[in-house]
Design a protein that fits this description.
Layout lengths: L3 E3 L7 E5 L4 E8 L4 H18 L4 E10 L1 H19 L4 E7 L4 H12 L5 E5 L2
């Protein structure tokens, strides 16, 4: 498998998956017209990583806004990480947010409550 590159747009996040480093980073807004279609490639990349590699996987998020369907897609991604974690895989989420955007922090905290893998929420300057 290889790295994943998705250029961000006004309504979709920039995504970079580093296959060797085990890092998947997403930054920006997420309100695509079809979230299911948009995130299919991302979910497939994560599934491939978790089945083909044994190294840890870190999801680095710098999301600013997510519509309802993007939240659902993110839940699907987190469910994959939770399943891997429950099988002993090292997975984690590092969610960076703007301290001026409390709504994003609250959303990240709501997500964190539902999962047992390491889930860090950090304000960035």
């Amino acid at each position: 498998m290889s790295d994943l590159h998705v250029n961000g747009t006004q309504s979709t996040p920039q995504i970079h998956g580093d296959w060797q480093a085990g890092i998947l980073a997403m930054q920006g807004d997420s309100y695509p017209e079809n979230s299911f279609e948009f995130f299919t490639t991302v979910i497939s990349w994560i599934e491939d990583f978790l089945t083909q590699k044994t190294e840890p996987l870190t999801l680095e998020l710098g999301l600013i806004y997510m519509n309802t369907s993007s939240v659902k897609a993110m839940m699907d991604i987190f469910d994959l990480l939770e399943e891997a974690h429950n099988k002993g895989r090292a997975v984690r989420v590092d969610w960076l947010y703007d301290p001026q955007n409390e709504r994003v922090r609250e959303l990240a905290e709501e997500f964190r409550e539902d999962y047992t893998f390491p889930f860090l929420i950090t304000a960035h300057a």
